[in-house]
Specification:
about 240 residues; alpha+beta; five-stranded mixed beta sheet; about 20% helix
């Protein structure tokens, strides 16, 4: 399913960084919709990768793969997603202590511009670029297949495209998407409010820090001045603060 759309650079690509800024990109002759997967070629015409294109964004291209034989499409996206999930659930086994954790961490998992958190029975895709119109849809379908018991929703990052969309949780991506869920983490329960919460709804990446605070809080007075959903407050209390 490789894209027939081609975007040329003004430079010879020598960096492995997945971001290519708009000033390095030649304006295509055709109108390419934001979020399209395109073939990227440098100024010599040499293949430079497969990328997610958005002419309106400062980062006009986010390189998804540098393998010319890679075929961007639903199946290859699913395979890459499964690799990221296996790292968390089969190798790190973080799902043993919590049912709220990060499945995909953007560029680190070769999904530039995407954060995906599994929060109880809800999976939240947070795109930081326009790739939700292509790769995001493939991710949604793959997640529903891998986790048939979960709801999948897209929530745009505030300050990016979310500023235009009001960072609204898009219910059309999942039937009967709940407004909130209760999740467990290291024996504690947290209420996650998707309708009012920040980012994906819960700071899954602070799990280890919350556990550390719990171990340090014994017989101490703790002031949590940015309590949000009470992650650190409840951890400190459980630790004897």
């Amino acid at each position: 399913m490789a894209s027939e759309r081609i975007v040329h650079l003004k430079i010879v690509r020598s960096s492995r960084h997945p971001w290519i800024y708009s000033g390095m990109v030649r304006r295509p002759d055709e109108n390419i919709p934001a979020g399209s997967v395109v073939e990227v070629r440098d100024k010599t015409g040499a293949f430079a990768g497969w990328g997610i294109y958005d002419s309106s964004h400062a980062v006009a291209l986010r390189i998804f793969s540098e393998d010319h034989n890679y075929n961007p499409g639903p199946e290859t996206v699913r395979q890459r997603l499964q690799t990221a999930i296996d790292m968390r659930e089969s190798i790190l086994c973080i799902n043993k202590d919590s049912n709220a954790y990060r499945l995909v961490h953007g560029e680190a998992d070769c999904f530039p511009g995407f954060i995906i958190d599994k929060i109880g029975t809800v999976i939240v895709i947070e795109p930081h670029a326009s790739g939700d119109q292509t790769i995001g849809l493939w991710l949604t379908d793959a997640l529903k297949e891998i986790y048939p018991q979960c709801h999948v929703g897209i929530r745009h990052a505030s300050g990016g495209r979310g500023r235009k969309t009001g960072a609204a949780f898009e219910r059309k991506k999942s039937d009967d998407l709940p407004d909130s869920v209760i999740v467990s983490e290291n024996g504690l329960q947290y209420h996650v409010d998707f309708s009012q919460g920040h980012k994906t709804g819960f700071f899954c990446d602070q799990r280890d820090n919350r556990l550390m605070i719990r171990k340090l809080a014994g017989n101490r007075r703790v002031f949590d001045c940015c309590c949000y959903s009470g992650g650190f407050s409840l951890s400190a209390s459980a630790g004897g603060a």
